[in-house]
Amino acid sequence: MHAWPASEVPALPGQGRDLRIHDTATGGLVTLDPGPVARIYVCGITPYDATHMGHAATYNAFDLVQRVWLDTKRQVHYVQNVTDVDDPLLERADRDGVDWTALAEKETALFREDMTALRMLPPRHYIGAVEAIPGIVPLVERLRDAGAAYELEGDIYFSVESDPHFGQVSHLDAAAMRLLSAERGGDPDRPGKKNPLDPMLWMAAREGEPSWDGGSLGRGRPGWHIECVAIALDHLGMGFDVQGGGSDLAFPHHEMGASHAQALTGEFPMAKAYVHAGMVGLDGEKMSKSKGNLVFVSQLRREGVDPAAIRLTLLAHHYRSDWEWTDQVLQDALARLDRWRAAVSRPDGPPAEALVGEIRAALADDLDSPAALEAVDRWAALQQETGGTDTGAPGVVSRAVDALLGVAL
Fold first, then answer.
1. How far does CA 288 lie from the centroid of its chain?
2. Is the pLDDT of residue 173 over 80?
3. Is 21:32 a contact under the CB 8 Å cutoff?
4. Cα→Cα distances 113→3, 22, 273, 307, Å
5. Phi first, then psi: what are they for 5, rounded to 5°?
6. Which ranges constitute the DSSP H helices of 236-326?
7. Mean pLDDT across the stretch 281-299?
8. pLDDT at position 285
9. Which of helix, strand or coil describes residue 21?
10. Number of alpha carbons in the 13 Å side-chain half-sphere of residue 397
11. What is the band of 209 on the pLDDT scale with cuts at 50, 70, 90?
């Protein structure tokens, strides 16, 4: 599966700072020191509907992580998956009377278009669950043969008790885990499971549903969590720098994935930091496909909204905060974009070197994009009020905003 084209990232003078970021597993800020190649895995979409603002906010956060690392002169090895076979996709295809593969291909293509328009840097490896199945099957067999998984009526389940570190990503109690498991794709009430929280690794073939050859597992399809584990281990290995996604993935997805990987390898942890973006709401509720309260990136683009303004709307909120989409936040972003473009269109301006440092410092401090935007606002206001004599300043600001914030002026 191919990703989307990369926009050029301008080179800036000097060098950025190492990133301090909030790690869900430790509950505090950690300073990441990835070495010459930073490794990041971000969980991708289940392609049964278009990219909504909650998706965009999540991928914007991890795009900033990449940009901070690139500014420190590191290379970035970024991997993202596409869950192109799963119950929600099959249910939507059945509801609409379309082929599930055609639906997945259509929505994945639209996602690529949205990411390109928003200037999100693409992953080096963009892998679908279906194409990962040949690598998933051996992992499930290894877990089963090691006693970390068991069969139940043809399905294969992972035993959470096989990982002594289970629970150390989300730090939830058993009752909270059971509740979230039921809400987020698990089956804690299924009779016969060793532990209600045990997640499915391999679902035996069901009539009328797609299935693949699973070797000694029989025909079936993979569970949600093992998909990401197989892709991450194949392309990044254990101990990669950041596992990312929305805050609703901390449990069960990232918790279970970490345990799968740790049981497979005997190593801990799977990722050095688990980083989670907040939720975007509309009309008082989390924006989600199940609720149908969605604002789509593609619809805004069709209405003629500048993608740079969409991105500025996202950047105006700290990535870990939950926030509400309103017409006003978009109007504020459009006005900000106009001010910035007017400021950099002048032939000279106030010196910009300090501004570049402010943006770098804000982003290195747990991706504080609102503070970065306020710094640019101050420079633009000074440009409007007093002007300046530095002929290179507007170009420096334009390149810094592009390189570090992904906004083309």
1. 15
2. yes
3. yes
4. 10, 30, 29, 11
5. -70, 150
6. 255-265, 297-302, 307-315
7. 80
8. 75
9. strand
10. 31
11. very high
- Residue 215 is encoded by which pair of tokens? 């070797």
> Distance of CA 255 to CAs 85, 96, 181, 197, 394, Å?
21, 33, 11, 11, 46
Q: Which residue, 17, 93, 6, 85, is CA-closest to 49?
A: 93
Give the HSE-up count for residue 190: Cα atoms under 13 Å, Cβ half-sphere.
Answer: 18
Contact 272, 41 (CB under 8 A): no
Contact status, residue 149 vs residue 156, Cβ threshold 8 Å:
yes
With beta carbons less than 8 A apart as the criterion, state whether 13 and 352 touch. no
pLDDT digits (tens, 9 = 90+) for 213-269: 999 999 999 999 999 999 999 999 999 999 999 999 999 999 999 999 999 999 999
List, as one string, the DSSP characters of 93-135.
Answer: HHHHT--HHHHHHHHHHHHHHHHHHTTPPPPSEEEEHHHHHHH
Query: How far does CA 7 lie from the centroid of its chain?
Result: 18
DSSP string spanning 134-168? HHHHHHHHHHHHTTSEEEETTEEEE-GGG-TTTTT
The C-alpha atoms of residue 131 and residue 142 are separated, in whole angstroms, by 20
As given in the structure block, the two tokens for residue 36 are: 């010459």
Specify the amino acid at residue 160: V
Q: How far apart are the first and last CA of the chain?
A: 31
Question: Residue 287: pLDDT band by 50, 70, 90 thresholds?
Answer: low
Q: From the DSSP assignment, how many helices (H) and strands (E) are in the chain?
A: 13, 14
Taking only the tens place, the pLDDT of each residue in 343-356 is 999 999 999 999 99
Map 355-384 to HEC letters: HHHHHHHHHHECCCHHHHHHHHHHHHHHHH
- With tokens 């929600």, the residue in question is 88
What are the φ/ψ torsions at residue 406 (nearest 5 degrees)? Answer: 75, 25
Write the DSSP assignment of 77-96 as a string of letters: EEEEEE--SSHHHHHHHHHH
User: Which residue matches tokens 């584990």?
Assistant: 229
Cα–Cα distances (Å) from 348 to 15, 384, 395, in that order, read 24, 11, 9
Query: What residue type is assigned to position 388 of the chain?
Result: G
Query: Dihedral of the CA atoms 195, 132, 273, 363 (nearest 10)?
Result: -140
Count the alpha carbons within 13 Å of 302 in the hemisphere toward its beta carbon: 7
Question: Which domains does the chain show, CATH number per domain?
Answer: 34-277 (3.40.50.620), 304-405 (1.20.120.640)
% residues pLDDT > 90 (the chain): 95
397 class by beta-carbon count within 10 Å (0-12 exposed, 13-18 middle, 19+ buried) = buried
What does pLDDT average to over the chain? 96
